[in-house]
Amino acid sequence: xxxxxxxxxxxxxxxxxxxxxxxxxxxxxxxxxxxxxxxxxxxxxxxxxxxxxxxxxxxxxxxxxxxxxxxxxxxxxxxxxxxxxxxxxxxxxxxxxxxxxxxxx
Length: 105
Hints:
By secondary structure, the chain is α+β, with helices and mostly antiparallel strands. It is built from 3 helices and 3 strands. The chain has a 3-stranded mixed beta sheet with strand order 1-2-3, with helices on one face. The longest helix is centred in the N-terminal third of the chain and has 15 residues, at 2-16. The chain is globular and about 40 Å long.
C-alpha cells in the first residue's frame, strides 16, 4: 500500500509540473508554489499551495488546473486544493532551474 501511495505522489508531482501561471514561464512546482502533496489511504489527495501574490488574477484558473490535472492521475479518488499564504512565497522557494529561467541566478 505504501509503495502505491508513493508512486501516486510521484505521478502527482509530475502532473503538477505541467501547471503554469499564465504570466510566468515556469511551472508552479518549480516556482515553489506547492507546499505539500498528501495522498491519504483512501486516495484522497490534498494539495497545499500558495500564489506569488495574494491578489493573483490567475488564482482561480491555476487552482482549477491543479485540481483537474491531479484528478486525472490514475487511482486518485478526489482532490482538495488548499490555498494558504503562510508562509509567504518568496523567490528563494524556486528551484535552481526556475531561478535560472527567470534570471535570479
